[in-house]
């Protein structure tokens, strides 16, 4: 068992747990094991998504791998790696791997609030400073005129895609959001030069989002990447890249300051699309508001 004790009463090291469980691992998990046995401290530098990409597998497989070794999740697994390496205190590493290295577990609530607000404000300001408004206007025009709009995103970015789809659909854009890669690939495969496809990924390296946008591009759709990294695979693939910048890793890479930057870009695009045919936009918003008015309590 992964959590077994060794002969002298101490818990097994991470590499020992990997060797002990290797015969029972699936092919995907064995790939992870190979990466970690070659570079045991890799988890200290890589997020769960980055480690999965290095091993050619998925974050879900990494989580299952951790559990097979006896760790509840990736955070606890990183603590085990850090403890084995002797690089940091285990309790502090648990906090830092989950919350980042700017916040301290002993900070008072006032300091946490200040740090959080600063992170979000800086992200929005950084995004506004790097956005190319000409490109934003072009993208908005292509969305407004598209026969069909696909929006791709997984994890937290899937929520952003769903929110954008809902808002655009209400003003008459034939928009569809895809978080499931199989459904997204099927939709992407039937695009053409009259359609637009948007891929949302903070890192720009999410395999599923890249695959969906690549399939749409191969079908001649106009493609757009919304990411924080202009040199990322997703950005390099797309016809147009709009940057949702996060200037510093204040918190965990998946924290909401990154999502707020994405939402800021999407909100700008939505308003520019709404301006494209303002009269029709107002009529559709009024009609949809009237349709649900009976479901709102008076007063």
Automatic annotation (TrEMBL):
User: Known CDD domains for this protein?
Assistant: SIS_RpiR
Q: Does the keyword Transcription apply?
A: yes
Query: What SUPFAM superfamilies does this protein's entry cite?
Result: Homeodomain-like, SIS domain
Keywords (A to Z) from UniProt: DNA-binding, Transcription, Transcription regulation
Any idea where the SIS domain is?
139-279
Domain named HTH rpiR-type is located at: 12-88
- Coiled-coil stretches: none
Record protein name field: MurR/RpiR family transcriptional regulator
According to its UniProt entry, this protein's organism is Georgenia halophila
């Amino acid at each position: 068992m992964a959590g077994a004790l060794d002969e002298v009463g101490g818990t097994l090291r991470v590499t020992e747990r990997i060797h002990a469980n290797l015969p029972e691992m699936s092919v995907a998990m064995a790939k992870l094991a190979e990466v970690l046995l070659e570079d045991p401290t890799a988890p200290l530098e890589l997020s769960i998504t980055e480690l999965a990409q290095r091993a050619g597998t998925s974050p879900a497989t990494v989580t299952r791998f951790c559990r097979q070794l006896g760790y509840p999740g990736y955070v606890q697994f990183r603590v085990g790696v850090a403890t084995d390496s002797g690089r940091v205190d285990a309790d502090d590493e648990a906090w830092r791997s989950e919350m980042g290295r700017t916040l301290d577990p002993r900070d008072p609530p006032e300091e946490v609030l200040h740090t959080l607000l600063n992170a979000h404000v800086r992200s929005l300001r950084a995004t506004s400073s790097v956005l190319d408004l000409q490109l934003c206007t072009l993208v908005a025009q292509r969305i407004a005129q598209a026969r069909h709009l696909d929006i791709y995103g997984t994890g937290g970015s899937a929520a952003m895609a769903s929110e954008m789809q809902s808002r655009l659909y209400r003003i008459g854009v034939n928009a569809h959001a895809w978080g499931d890669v199989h459904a997204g690939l099927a939709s992407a495969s039937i695009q053409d030069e009259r359609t637009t496809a948007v891929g949302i990924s903070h890192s720009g390296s999410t395999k599923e989002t890249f695959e969906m946008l690549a399939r749409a591009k191969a079908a001649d759709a106009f493609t757009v990447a919304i990411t924080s990294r202009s040199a990322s695979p997703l950005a390099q693939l797309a016809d147009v890249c709009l940057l949702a910048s996060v200037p510093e890793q204040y918190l965990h890479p998946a924290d909401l300051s990154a999502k707020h930057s994405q939402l800021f870009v999407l909100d700008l695009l939505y308003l520019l699309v709404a301006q494209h045919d303002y009269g029709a936009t107002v009529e559709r918003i009024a009609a949809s508001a009237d349709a649900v008015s009976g479901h709102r309590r008076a007063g």
